[in-house]
From TrEMBL:
SUPFAM superfamilies the record matches: FAD/NAD(P)-binding domain
InterPro entries reported for this sequence: Amino_oxidase (IPR002937), FAD/NAD-bd_sf (IPR036188), Retinol_saturase (IPR052206)
Amine oxidase domain sequence ranges: 12-506
Organism placement in taxonomy: Bacteria, Thermotogati, Thermotogota, Thermotogae, Kosmotogales
Organism: Mesotoga infera
GO terms, molecular function: oxidoreductase activity
Lineage: superkingdom: Bacteria
Sorted UniProt keywords: FAD, Flavoprotein, NAD, NADP, Signal
Record's protein name: Putative Amine oxidase, flavin-containing superfamily
Amino acid sequence: MKYDCIVIGAGISGLSCAAFIAKAGKKVILIERSEKPGGYFSSFEYNGYHFDSGIKAVENAGLLFPMLENFGIMDKLNFVKNRVYAGFEDKVFSMESDESLLEYFDFLGERFPESRSGIEDLLKEMEELNSFMGSLSGMSGPLYGKTTFLTKLKSIPWFLKNGKKLLGFLKKLKYNNIPFRDFLKVRIPDDELVSIIDEPFFEGTPAFFGLAYPTVFRDYFYPRGGIEQIPLELAEFIRKSGGTVLTNTEVTKILLERSSPAGVVTDTGQEIESPVIVNAADAKRLYNKLLPENSVDLDFLQRLNRAQVSDSVFSVFMGVDTAPENLDQHVEHIIYVPAAAKYCDYESPEYFKTTGMEISIPCMRDPSLAPAGKTGIILNVNTTQKAMNGWGRSVSRAEYERLKEQAADDVMANFFRLYPSLKEKIEFRIVSTPFTMEEKTLNSGGSITGWNYHPSETFPLRDFRKMKRSIDTPVRNLFQIGQWSFDPAGVPVCLITAKLAADRVLNISRT
């Protein structure tokens, strides 16, 4: 069968794009190599425990919920508010309000009195940026509706009310070109405090996003049943709308005719025809493995291969023989920094002994996600495939396993600083590294957000004013969406580029 469009990769971006195309009545096929759709929106079960293997909660950003409502599936997903806390040493602070955030920074000011003025400056910058971002909730989902004179008219009161904030927001866009750590070091003299504040972020994260994180965390939600419920509902919507979702199938080649897509070949040898292809998967794999040789010019290919990918994560999934209500900290999601925290390069042998972590407890959002009287806990640490001398993989599989377990021991030792009563309660642990992430997703280096966040990385498009162009590739009618299309990336970029590509596909199909 010939399709109007082939979408490669069933992560949140590929699913969203295919859903828009299917809803418009076009023939679309979404091809995914894994058993289930989801990508980094995936989950797994072990011994009755439910774990989220990718993201631990999702921000609405004025995009996700309107899109789900547009597809008529919002009511099928039972979202609960996901509260995020900041943890330092043995203390935990809510980030749900300006008052609680101030309490956290007051605590840091007492610990680091010589940095008080820098903390005050940081809070002022955060307040100005987050004031506008909080106002965005009044602009619900303009991306998904038709822009008419009436919709423009309805937006006028919002602009009149928030115009001054908008101007301040636009001025803050300059911080998209400054790493957050560099931004902090100019204002805060204590390196330890800089490391504490910078801890949640990937290397090179722009200051714009570092300053905005309180608003992002307050916009986090979690679907009962686990993160995977979102992709499962999207896949079902695509099928009911006449689209095809083909799992357990890997695209191995893209076919071109007259320098434009003609279809794909899968790992089973099947040829699927389409004049338009949307790649919602790894960009390096697209150009180096899927496209025929000489499809793009050599300079483009060299720049692509020199470009650095984003950080990955090291994860520990634990089953704990304690009920959630008996935990040392009765909160579901913590960005934790231990007392031993200090800045270390990912490749330092001390890194896993000193770094902070993200702590996520799914059954505190939905009790059904763990056996009765027990708790599943996930620990995430930012890292790369270069850590610990490449995780010893060049030496032997045994050395890789040894270093993996050593890193898990170090991370858990810091975790027990905040949860001391759990030391003897661990039933099992499952450990994954950036190599695990690459194996599961085919993302180069186990990348979590596509390209490296550092502003010096110039290959991907970074100008918000030109985001519409971010989906274009050197091959006509071949589009790139999701994490690999724009930098810095995240769920909002995935949803925006999915809609941009879907609109382009629909325009092509009309001609």
